[in-house]
Fold this sequence. Notes:
Layout: H1 11-26, H2 46-64, H3 77-88, H4 90-93, E1 95-99, H5 106-120, E2 128-132, H6 133-140, H7 149-158, E3 161-165, H8 174-190, E4 194-198, H9 210-214, H10 216-225, E5 226-230, H11 236-239
Parallel strand pairs: 1-4, 1-5, 2-3, 3-4
Helix pairs in contact: 2-5, 3-5, 7-8, 8-10
Amino acid sequence: MEPTNIGNLGPSAFARIMGGIREKQRQGIGPGPVDDAPSPDEPGHPEYHRRNRAEWNLARWETAAPPRYRRADASHPAVQQWADDVAADPTEAGSLLLTGTTGTGKTYEAYGALRRIAAAGGTHPYEIRALTAADMNGLLRVNGSPRGAEEELRRLCRIPLLLLDDLGSAKATEWTEETTYRLINERYNACRPTVYTSNLPAKSSDGRDLTAALGDRIVSRLSEDTHVIAMTGPDRRRAA
């Protein structure tokens, strides 16, 4: 059939066509929606970009974490919640202190928390540093680093995520107390989350606690925005 010019249909046919169009417009009938939104596997979708960030974060995790802890998985619900809070907004999450006797899984949970943050693929920069309190003291001593003690301290203060293992294990001196205070105070003021582990309880009736080991100034900073979780159980290393 040959196409017909609408002008050749005559006034009545043309009026019926236009009337039908106006009726559909009056009823709100129009072309159906076009679903051109990206899928989760396409650029532009939030999930696509979250997965890319998570992949990049976990690659950094593989580089920064010791081989023994690269597959660490936080299993304690409170540790998981803290990690999720950090992934959502590190400036509001506070810090984390895991206490307990040797072998109760403190370090494993701490590394697991950092790995969980990486896997969340949050929008905040993922950079971590993990070291023991003894290694930190060695690094910050005179000639402990070619960068110099002050530069190393600044780096530890500014890293977005820090794990400080075995807090309070070093012999307390005026120098160790001052150095630890400067680190914790700077990170506290900047709202940078830190994971601490310690064999000492936060407080104890016999005085063998973090206050005795670190001093009132440091524990005061920790007490305000640090979630304290006591790890219990037998020595897992001996059980293995």
